[in-house]
Amino acid sequence: MSEHGGICVFSEVYDLTLEMLGRGRQLADKLHTELAVVQFGKNAQEKVKDLTRYGADKVYLVNNITPEVFQLDSYISVLHDIAARYRPEILMIGSTRNGKPLAARLATRLDAGCVPDCIRLDVDEGRRLIGERITYGGNAVAKVAFKSKPQIVTVPTRAFEKATPQDRKGEVVKLDVNVEPPKVEVVERKPLETSSERVEEAEVIVSCGRGLEKKDDITLLKDLADVLGGQVGCSRPLVEDRKWFSEWIGLSGHKVKPKIYIASGVSGVIQHVAGIRDAKIIVAINKDPEAPIFEIADYGIVGNLYEVLPALEEALKKQLQ
Ligand SMILES: Cc1cc2nc3c(=O)[nH]c(=O)nc-3n(C[C@H](O)[C@H](O)[C@H](O)COP(=O)(O)OP(=O)(O)OC[C@H]3O[C@@H](n4cnc5c(N)ncnc54)[C@H](O)[C@@H]3O)c2cc1C
After folding, report:
1. Which of 310, 278, 292, 136 is nearest to 209 (CA)?
2. Phi, psi of 48 (to 5 degrees)
3. How many angstroms does the Cα of residue 291 sit away from the middle of ligand 1?
């Protein structure tokens, strides 16, 4: 059987695919190997061009699958087929709700190792992939090396930067692969009631915690977020206990990476902080000077959020006029 070689990337989320291609390109150059990406759908010609501009040497274009609906069993069979045919040494899969079980089950089929949620990836002198992932509730970083190939990792959104698109050409390999029929059927779909924008993608987030007293007071955060062109976020108790929001930020919620994260009335316990570590600037507003959020904040305001938020909004409005 041929040696393993090359890197192969897949995610059903297009932006995440481009981010993985960014790091995948650097690793492929380091290993002097090729970078491939799997793309589903007949009408993906435009995407194919972009995938090569963002770093792919090869695009495996799978025609006989509809990307609109994620079908775990079918996707596994396609990726298994590609992995068996082309024997990549590294498989990078987007760490989405669908991508994680996909990676784990694919690893089982290939009898391979799988490291989820890698926030850093590198290779050592023996061509081994080294993945780093946050562990112990955000208190430690585990460094994991693979002992066999293929080496499968999942990569969360915003762990890596997209490459600057370049005018480069790649090869398109059209594949008609054996797609196993799904073993489960989606019987109903209901839209989730969320804000139209995704908090994971916001550049500015004004978030609140249990320091906020009433649901109506969310307008204080919205007003400041509007001035900054940002979005409102929150800690978990505001979803689970108070039911004011549908999504939260943190270890068990969204991991965010904004340019500015303003945490108001958030104590800053480890489970929340695990989701905001990658924010460029953290501003904390808390009336308790001993609140742990101040330990990680770049700027701290000890004060009552009901005074500080409107004052900030006023001051910024004047500045931005
Ligand atoms: C397995 C597990 C997973 C979890 N995952 C997450 C997660 O992903 N995300 C998450 O957020 N939590 C998570 N939690 C919950 C977490 O442990 C904390 O309970 C939660 O983050 C605390 O939320 P908080 O900071 O809003 O509230 P609190 O800890 O009660 O803090 C409120 C803060 O507001 C300040 N305050 C009060 N009034 C004012 C005011 N008027 N002005 C200014 N400041 C004021 C207080 O001084 C205090 O510091 C998880 C817990 C478990 C067990």
Report:
1. 292
2. -60, -45
3. 10
**Ligand 1 centroid to residue 230 C-alpha, Å:** 21
Q: CA 268, 271, 272, 276: dihedral to nearest 10 degrees? A: 110
Mean local confidence (pLDDT), 34-57: 90
Give the three-state DSSP class for 54. coil
CA distances from 300 to 147, 282, 294, 303, 305 (A): 45, 8, 6, 9, 12
Q: What is the pLDDT of residue 201?
A: 86
Mutate to test the pocket of ligand 1, among 252, 254, 277 (most ligand atoms within 8 A of CB): 252
State the virtual CA torsion across 288, 293, 297, 303 in degrees, nearest 10: -20
280-298 pLDDT, tens digit per residue, is 999 999 999 999 999 999 9
pLDDT at 44 over 80: no
Per-residue pLDDT band for 192 (boundaries 50, 70, 90) equals: low
pLDDT recorded at residue 60: 95
- Residues lining ligand 1, judged by CB closer than 6 Å? 209-211, 235-237, 248-253, 265-267, 269, 271-272, 275, 285-288, 291, 304-306
Mutate to test the pocket of ligand 1, among 218, 248, 267, 301 (most ligand atoms within 8 A of CB): 267
Q: What does the H/E/C string look like for 207-258?
A: EECCCCCCHHHHHHHHHHHHHHCCEEEECCHHHHCCCCCCCCECCCCECCCC
Mind listing the pLDDT tens digit for each residue in 160-184?
999 999 999 899 999 988 788 888 8
d(CA 243, CA 264) in angstroms, rounded, equals 18
